[in-house]
Amino acid sequence: MPGYQIKQERIAIAGTDDLLIRSLLDRQQFSDPLGVAERLGISSATWPLFGQLWPSGLRLATCMALRPVRADERILELGCGLALPSLVSHRRGADITASDCHPLAGGFLLENLGLNQLLPMKYRHGDWAEPPPQALGEAPAPLLVTGRFDLLIGSDLLYEQDVSGALAGFIGRHAMPAAEVWIVDPDRSNRSAFNRLMAAQGFDMIEERLDRSATPDTAAYKGRLLTYRRTGATRPEGSPP
To answer: What domains are there in the chain, each with its CATH number?
Structure first.
């Protein structure tokens, strides 16, 4: 893969089998020869972030490994990056679509599906501000997120202040009337503002601490699972209390 270096690791996920994951070697990698990322507003500093395995993503993957699979449920992962929670869910038979705005996220997902001998799964370009496809400068235009989903999931999405409400608005447009949203957040300071934006979309919120002490094999983690439900929605089986 020209322009950047990669590595491959075996990732242990509580409640399910390990996954082989190909990721960027470190946070110093960058390659945008056609300027696609630049047109999407992805700077050289943020470009490599999609290709890293983040602690909150691993915690979300564990939550999805323990959640019962429902045959009639459509799931969307937001800002998936390397899509570890999507890979876990897909391997268990869930109907899940991974989405991200990074131009290389879909390619890495394809590689990691192959490494783990998994069948193809759905991937869509998911820019929360939803720019027109021609902004990507690609032909043909990528497939965009369409339709509505029963469960929307994401990890460490609140790293920037969302003044325009793009993320909450995207969720509102793509969530079923009785949808549920799971976001694993490592105690970011933008959480309260996002809660207000989600409330404006008709979602109530409860939270569950996911703190974990360090062990010889795992680092400590501090964060929480934010669960948003539409007002009056019934809690699906397997959801957090």
So the answer is: 6-27+43-230 (3.40.50.150)
